[in-house]
Design brief:
Layout lengths: L2 H24 L7 H17 L23 E3 L9 E2 L2 H15 L7 E7 L2 E8 L2 E7 L5 E3 L2 H5 L16 E10 L1 H7 L6 H9 L4 H6 L2 E8 L10 H11 L8 E3 L2 H14 L7 E8 L2 H7 L9 E5 L3 E14 L5 E12 L2 E7 L3 H7 L6 E6 L6 E5 L24 E2 L2 E2 L4 E2 L4 E2 L7 H12 L11 H9 L14 H5 L6 H13 L2 E3 H7 L7 H11 L2 H9 L14 H12 L1 H13 L1 E3 L13 E5 L7 H10 L3 E2 L9 E4 L5 H9 L3 E4 H7 L2
Parallel strand pairs: 2-11, 21-22, 23-24, 23-25, 25-26
Antiparallel strand pairs: 1-6, 3-9, 3-10, 4-5, 4-7, 7-8, 10-11, 12-13, 12-15, 13-14, 15-16, 17-20, 18-19
Bound molecules: 2-(butylsulfanyl)adenosine (IVH).
Length: 670
C-alpha cells in the first residue's frame, strides 16, 4: 500500500469513529458494542503509531471521543479562571516587574510565592459549610463543565472538611494531573499525561475516571472573602491545614536574581519529580497588593509563569506557505517533515515574518532546528548550513498578497524610526478573502461576540459554501440548507441558532472589539465605549469625521486614531457596522451599580502619589464612578496631583467643579 492509500483507510476509520462518538456521547444511542468501538479506536491509534504523517483533529489520540461542552451541564465561575502570561528569560521577568512598578507608580521591594507549574488541567471546587457542593472544569475561563462526580473519585479531593477555620463559602482551585509512571501504562491511549488527565476527567461515566489514578494539588482560590489571610504563602499553608495537598517545592523568594537561580536549579531537578512540570509560577505574595494590581484582559498583573526551555528536534522544510491574518499580516509557515518533539508530532513551524527569513536565510529543503515550548506554536530556531544542498536558492518573499493580489507593505514605525518586520496586505477590508475569513473568525470569538456554536472550522466551511461573506450574514443564515449538510443534525442546528440569537444582545465594548479594528483590543474598545456610550454616538463621530476627539481619552493615541481612520476609509467597513447595529441590540453597561461613586464623574490632572493613572481609573470604576477626559459641566470632581495642568484647574474653578486632592478623593472611598 502506498501513503495515499494508507491515508484513505485512516481517514475512513476516523470518520467512522466520529460518527459513533456522536451516537454515543451526544445522542446517548450507541450503534455498536463497546468492544467494537475499542477495536476501532485501537486500529486508528496503531496506524498513527506506525505512520507518523497520519493525523486528524478528530483522532481519539486528540479528543476523548466527544466534545465535552455538549455532554456536561455548564456552570458559570463566580470568579473567572484566567490563565497566566509567560516569561522565558530575564528580560521578560524584568519587564513584568517594570509593569508592576509603573502601575503602582512606585518601586518597592517585592516578595513572591514561587510554585512549580504542574502540566495538568485546572479545576475549581466550591465548598459550602465544609461540603464539596460542585466541581467545575476551567472551560473557557468564564463557564466550565460540571464534573463534580468525576472529581470526587480523586483521593486528594476532600468531600467534607470539618476544620473550624475552613471558610463557610470558598472555591478552591488547583491542578488535576497524572503521575509519569501511571502515564507509562496508558501511553498507547493518550499523547501526553496532560491529555490523559483531561480525557479521564471528562469521562461521562465517573467509574471510568476512577480507573485512571488522578491527583490534585491545590494552589489558589476563586470566590473567597477573608481578612485574616494576608499572603499567598499563608493561604497555601492554610490549604494544607484544611486537608488539601499542596506542592512540596513551594517557596517564598524576593529578587529576580533569586528567582532565576531557583529556576535554573529546578529546571534540572524536575526530571526527578513524579509528575511533569513545565515551569514555575511566581505570584506577588501580598494579597492586598495582588488585589490592587488586578487583571488585564486575560491574565493577572500579579503573577507570571516562568517556562522551562523548550524541547527541540531537527527536520526538513518541505514547503513555505504564507498565511494572511486578520489585520493583513503575512506570516510565513514552514511545512516540515513530521517530527516528534517532546511527545507531540509537529508538522508546521512558524517562521514569524519576512525579516526573520532573511536574517536566518531560511530556504526550502533546509534542515532546521524546531523548538516547541508548552502550548506555544513551534518555531524554527536555526538552519544547519552543513546540510544545505548546493543548488538551494534564497526564498523570495512575495510582494503581493497571496490571497487577493494587493500590494503588500512594511509600515514605518514613527516611535522606533524603523520599518516593521511584518509585511502586510494593504487591503483593509473584506475584499481579501483570507482577511475576510479571519475577520469573521475574530468576530465570533470568545472575547468578541462569543458565538460558541460557530467555531473557526465552521466559519471556513460556511465560507466555502458561500453561506457567509460578512459578519452580518451570520444573522441571516439559511438553516434549512445547513440542516442538510453532512455532520449537521437537528440538535446541532438548533444549538447554532440558539447561540447566534443569544449573541444579538451585546455590550458596546465587545461589539467595538468584535468589528476588528487594528490596534483596538479589548482594553481600548472599553475606553471607546465609555467615551461614546452608544453605538449611535460612535457612528455620528465617524460620519462627522470627528475621530480625533478620541485623542482626549487617556490611553488612546495617534496609532489608534490613524487605524480607525484607515478602517473607515473603506466604505464596506462602515456599511457592516450600520447593518449590524440594525440587527443587534448593542448597549453600554456600567458593570458595578452599587459602588460608592455611582453617578460621579472624575478627571485627574497631574501626577498621583504611589499610584498610576491606570490604577486610579480602575479604582474609580470598581466603585461605579466614571472617568472623563475633558473639563465640562458634566464633570463633578477634578482630582489634582503633583504639577497639574493649570488650564484645567482654572476651567474647573470657572465651572464651579469641586476640586479634590488625592487624599480627599481617597477619603471618599474610605
Ligand atoms: S494560578 C489567575 N498556580 O497554569 C491565575 N496556576 O496559565 C490562576 N497552573 O490554568 C492560576 N500550577 O492550570 C496557578 N501554582 C499554580 C499553577 C497554575 C499550574 C496552571 C493552571 C492555569 C495555568 C495558567
Amino acid at each position: 500500500m502506498n501513503d495515499s492509500e494508507i491515508k484513505k483507510i485512516y481517514e475512513k476509520l476516523v470518520s467512522e469513529i466520529s460518527k459513533h462518538n456522536k451516537y454515543y456521547f451526544e445522542d446517548s444511542k450507541p450503534l455498536i458494542s463497546d468492544k467494537k468501538y475499542d477495536d476501532l479506536k485501537k486500529q486508528i491509534l496503531n496506524l498513527e503509531k506506525k505512520y507518523s504523517y497520519l493525523k486528524s483533529n478528530s483522532s481519539p489520540s486528540k479528543i476523548l471521543g466527544f466534545s465535552p461542552s455538549k455532554n456536561f451541564e455548564k456552570s458559570k465561575h463566580r470568579v473567572r479562571m484566567l490563565s497566566l502570561s509567560n516569561a522565558f528569560n530575564k528580560d521578560d521577568l524584568e519587564n513584568f516587574e517594570k509593569k508592576i512598578f509603573n502601575y503602582l507608580n512606585k518601586k518597592i521591594e517585592l516578595e513572591y510565592s514561587v510554585e512549580p507549574k504542574i502540566d495538568g488541567i485546572s479545576a475549581s471546587l466550591t465548598y459550602k459549610k465544609g461540603l464539596l457542593i460542585i466541581g467545575v472544569s476551567r472551560g473557557d475561563g468564564t463557564t466550565g463543565e460540571v464534573i463534580t462526580e468525576n472529581l470526587k473519585t480523586i483521593n486528594d479531593i476532600p468531600h467534607k472538611i470539618s476544620n473550624k477555620d475552613f471558610p463557610k463559602d470558598i472555591d478552591i482551585r488547583g491542578e488535576v494531573f497524572i503521575e509519569k509512571d501511571d502515564f507509562e501504562k496508558l501511553k498507547n491511549d493518550f499523547a501526553n499525561p496532560r491529555n490523559a488527565a483531561s480525557g479521564s476527567l471528562r469521562q461521562k461515566n465517573p467509574l471510568e475516571t476512577n480507573k485512571i489514578p488522578l491527583n490534585f494539588i491545590a494552589y489558589t482560590y476563586g470566590y473567597f472573602k477573608s481578612d485574616k489571610i494576608k499572603k499567598q504563602s499563608d493561604f497555601l499553608s492554610s490549604l494544607k491545614k484544611w486537608g488539601f495537598k499542596i506542592n512540596e517545592h513551594n517557596k517564598v523568594l524576593k529578587t529576580i536574581k533569586d528567582l532565576e537561580s531557583f529556576h535554573k536549579k529546578f529546571e534540572n531537578d524536575r526530571f526527578d519529580l513524579k509528575y511533569d512540570v513545565d515551569g514555575l509560577v511566581y505570584k506577588i505574595n501580598n494579597l492586598s497588593l495582588q488585589n490592587r494590581l488586578g487583571f488585564t484582559a486575560n491574565s493577572p498583573r500579579w503573577a507570571i509563569a516562568h517556562k522551562f526551555s523548550a524541547d527541540s528536534a531537527y527536520s526538513i522544510i518541505k514547503d513555505i506557505n504564507i498565511q494572511v491574518g486578520r489585520t493583513g499580516a503575512l506570516t510565513p509557515v514552514a511545512r516540515i517533515k513530521p517530527v516528534n518533539i517532546g511527545g507531540v508530532v509537529v508538522s508546521n513551524a512558524t517562521l514569524h515574518n519576512e525579516d526573520e527569513i532573511i536574517r536566518k536565510d531560511i530556504r526550502l529543503g533546509d534542515t532546521v532546528k524546531v523548538e516547541r515550548a508548552g502550548d506555544v506554536i513551534p518555531h524554527v530556531v536555526s538552519v544547519d548550513l552543513k546540510k544545505r544542498e548546493k543548488k538551494s536558492k534564497k526564498f523570495i518573499f512575495p510582494n503581493n498578497c497571496p490571497s487577493c493580489g494587493s500590494i503588500t507593505i512594511k509600515e514605518f514605525n514613527k516611535t522606533t524610526k524603523k520599518y516593521d518586520a511584518v509585511r502586510r496586505c494593504t487591503n483593509e477590508g473584506y475584499d481579501c478573502e483570507k482577511i475576510a475569513i479571519e475577520k469573521i473568525k475574530h468576530f465570533i470569538s470568545k472575547d468578541a461576540m462569543n458565538i460558541d456554536g460557530l467555531g473557526k472550522k465552521v466559519v471556513e466551511n460556511f465560507w466555502d459554501l458561500n453561506l457567509i461573506r460578512f459578519p452580518q450574514d451570520i444573522y441571516n443564515l439559511d438553516y434549512n440548507k445547513i440542516s442538510n449538510l453532512e455532520g449537521w443534525g437537528d440538535l446541532s442546528v438548533s444549538n447554532l441558532k440558539y447561540s447566534i440569537d443569544q449573541s444579538k444582545k451585546v455590550s458596546l465594548d465587545r461589539f467595538l472589539y468584535a468589528i476588528g479594528i487594528r490596534h483596538i483590543g479589548i482594553e481600548n474598545a472599553k475606553l471607546l465605549a465609555e467615551y461614546v456610550k452608544s453605538i449611535k454616538n460612535f457612528i455620528i463621530l465617524v460620519n462627522k469625521d470627528k475621530l480625533n476627539e478620541f485623542l482626549d481619552i487617556d490611553g488612546i493615541g495617534e496609532t489608534q486614531i490613524n487605524s480607525l481612520k484607515t478602517f473607515f476609509e473603506n466604505k464596506s467597513n462602515y456599511k457592516i457596522i450600520e447593518k449590524l447595529s440594525s440587527i443587534l441590540n448593542i448597549s453600554y453597561t456600567i458593570l458595578n451599580k452599587n459602588g460608592k461613586l455611582l453617578n460621579n464623574t472624575f478627571m485627574i490632572t497631574g501626577k498621583l502619589l504611589n499610584m498610576s493613572r491606570a490604577e486610579a481609573k480602575s479604582l474609580i470604576e470598581k466603585n461605579s464612578g466614571s472617568v472623563v477626559s475633558s473639563v465640562n459641566r458634566k464633570l463633578k470632581y477634578l482630582i489634582i496631583g503633583e504639577k497639574p495642568t493649570n488650564r484645567k484647574v482654572q476651567q474647573a474653578k470657572e465651572l464651579g467643579i469641586k476640586i479634590l486632592s488625592q487624599k480627599e478623593w481617597l477619603n471618599l472611598l474610605d
